[in-house]
Design goal:
Shape: globular
Catalytic activity: 4-methyl-2-oxopentanoate(out) + H(+)(out) = 4-methyl-2-oxopentanoate(in) + H(+)(in); 3-methyl-2-oxobutanoate(out) + H(+)(out) = 3-methyl-2-oxobutanoate(in) + H(+)(in)
Low-confidence stretches: 1-6, 201-211, 221-235, 490-496, 502-512
Mean pLDDT: 77
CATH class: Mainly Alpha
Order of helices and strands: HHHHHHHHHHHHHHHHHHHH
Structural class: mainly alpha
Family: Belongs to the major facilitator superfamily. Monocarboxylate porter (TC 2.A.1.13) family.
GO molecular function: monocarboxylic acid transmembrane transporter activity; symporter activity
Protein name: Major facilitator superfamily (MFS) profile domain-containing protein
Oligomer: single chain
Number of strands: 0
Subcellular location: Basolateral cell membrane
Number of domains: 1
Length: about 500
């Protein structure tokens, strides 16, 4: 295995132990965060008739939920930095359950947008980011494998929730199903309880505030009425105020590191992913409705999502093992680019499937490609920015990506409503993802070349500085030796002259 990237966490991650329990909890949280919006599409046909809306309007429910999940990333990152992953995930689980229970009493599509899209979506945001962040704190060498296993929770949940939703709908209706789903989502609180804090428990040093300084000065004044405030005390008060302003900026930058927008690799990743998400979620949202449009029964249409989820379930940990190998991990960005382009190629070929057999084959390849992308989605980001800056990177990436996530499914729904055919939606998504994969491949090649060039320049600079230091040391030693010789010369010669004079004087006396 290739050597892991340097980490400045301040401790050595255990790479196992309780970390596997954390991976299990993360798989539950990540599973609900990713699979629930997809499994929710089972209710689209019924909700469209109940509220008398179009496909594009009902698609906004999933879009708002996904956009809120990603858009709440910065808030989630700030809360994780402030309180830790465990309380944030537990609170997120409560929001998810409350949102779905309230959705059971909705009487309009707008209320559904708020309850399912905003409330439950924000609860999923508080589940997704902390689960991904805490894996980076428990794992370093085995991090790709741990991420792959945690991401495998999404297909496991999808393969379970898709048939379960259809069963609940047939027996309890959509209102009863939403009420039961709200109770099921409370299991996120149990998953969050497994996130035991880890790391250096160093409390921040509390600096004195202005009020404390003024109180101290007042006490000193009361002790001795003769003493007056010195200029030093006044300057210390103004200095404390500057320090407070500086501390506020430092705390904000600590929660969200905006200097990442100057990071070349981060910008490449961000642009490629923003483009990718225009076509990432729409195909899976409309897969079951597309099957029903072709005349396939409801259970068989829901089973397509289960097939996709089963293949996805195998693909994610397998991709994590491959990505952790010594051949792939040093160039993992290329593997990620290939996965995105492969995903887009599957969507371009989907319109060729006009029967159930063709849709099953499409679901198999789509599940493989989808699992490959999801397994490396956060691992590649951590590979670029490092574990210490990953929390801020996730928050910044998700809030930018939420715009395209919000627009993707409604654009697909608009194409379906306009042309009355699903193939244009699949072609649009496939073309966008192939373009995103190509862009990432080219730009990552450029990034790797630039990193290698910068590394060579750094080594050359170090060698030059080392040579200059060696020459300077030799020169300084020579100057010291010459200086000592010049200082020794005048001292030796007078001593020699004095000895010769004494010798002559003694010889003269002996002659006399």
């Amino acid at each position: 295995m290739s050597p892991p990237a340097n980490t400045d966490l301040g401790y050595t991650p255990p790479d196992g132990g309780w970390g596997w329990a954390v991976v299990f909890g993360a798989s539950i949280s990540v599973g609900f965060a990713y699979s629930f919006p997809k499994a929710f599409t089972v209710y689209f046909k019924e909700l469209r008739m109940v509220f008398n809306v179009s496909y594009s309007q009902i698609a906004w429910v999933t879009s708002i939920m996904c956009a809120t999940t990603y858009g709440g990333g910065p808030i989630s990152s700030i809360l994780v930095n402030r309180f830790g992953s465990r309380p944030v995930v537990i609170f997120g689980g409560l929001l998810c359950g409350i949102g779905m229970i309230l959705a059971a009493f909705c009487t309009s599509i707008l209320q559904l947008y708020i309850c399912v899209g905003v409330v439950s979506g924000f609860g999923l945001a508080l589940n997704l980011q902390p689960s991904v962040i805490i894996i980076g704190k428990y794992f370093l060498k085995r991090r790709p494998i741990a991420n792959g296993l945690a991401m495998a929770g999404s297909p496991v949940m999808l393969s379970t929730l898709a048939p379960l939703n259809q069963f609940l709908f047939d027996n309890f209706g959509w209102r009863g199903s939403f009420f039961i789903l709200g109770a099921i989502l409370l299991n996120c609180c149990v998953a969050g309880a497994l996130f035991r804090p880890i790391g250096m428990a160093a409390d921040p040093v509390r600096k004195p505030t202005i009020k404390q300084a003024e109180k101290t000065v007042k006490e000193q004044t009361n002790k001795s009425s003769v003493e007056m405030l010195s200029p030093k005390t006044v300057s210390s008060l103004s200095g404390t105020e500057d320090e407070e302003d500086k501390d506020c900026c430092e705390k904000f930058n600590k929660y969200l590191d905006f200097s990442l927008f100057k990071h070349r690799g981060f910008l490449i990743y961000l642009i490629g992913n923003v483009l990718m998400f225009l076509g990432f979620f729409a195909p899976i949202v409309f897969l079951a409705p597309y099957a029903k449009h072709l005349g396939i029964d409801e259970y068989s249409a829901a089973f397509l999502l289960s097939i996709l989820a089963i293949v996805d379930m195998i693909a994610r940990p397998t991709t994590g093992i491959i990505a952790n190998s010594k051949w792939v991990r040093p160039k993992i960005q290329y593997f990620f680019s290939f996965s995105i382009a492969f995903n887009g190629a599957c969507h371009l070929l989907c319109p060729l499937a006009t029967g159930y057999t063709g849709l099953v084959i499409y679901s198999v390849f789509f599940g493989l490609a989808f699992g490959m992308v999801c397994a490396m989605l956060f691992e590649t980001l951590m590979d670029l920015v490092g574990a210490a800056r990953f929390t801020s990177a996730v928050g910044l990436v998700t809030i930018v990506e939420c715009c395209t996530i919000l627009l993707g499914p409604p654009i697909g729904g608009t194409l379906i409503d306009t042309f009355g055919d699903y193939k244009y939606m699949f072609i649009k998504c496939g073309a966008v993802m192939v373009l995103a994969g190509t862009f990432l491949f080219i730009m990552n090649y450029y990034n790797y070349r630039m990193l290698a060039k910068e590394e060579r320049e750094r080594k050359a600079t170090e060698e030059t500085m080392k040579d200059h230091k060696h020459i300077r040391t030799e020169t300084e030693d020579g100057n010291i030796w010459a200086k000592e010789k010049m200082q020794d010369g005048p001292e030796v010669e007078p001593l020699t002259d004095e000895r010769e004079g004494l010798k002559k004087e003694v010889n003269g006396k002996s002659e006399v």
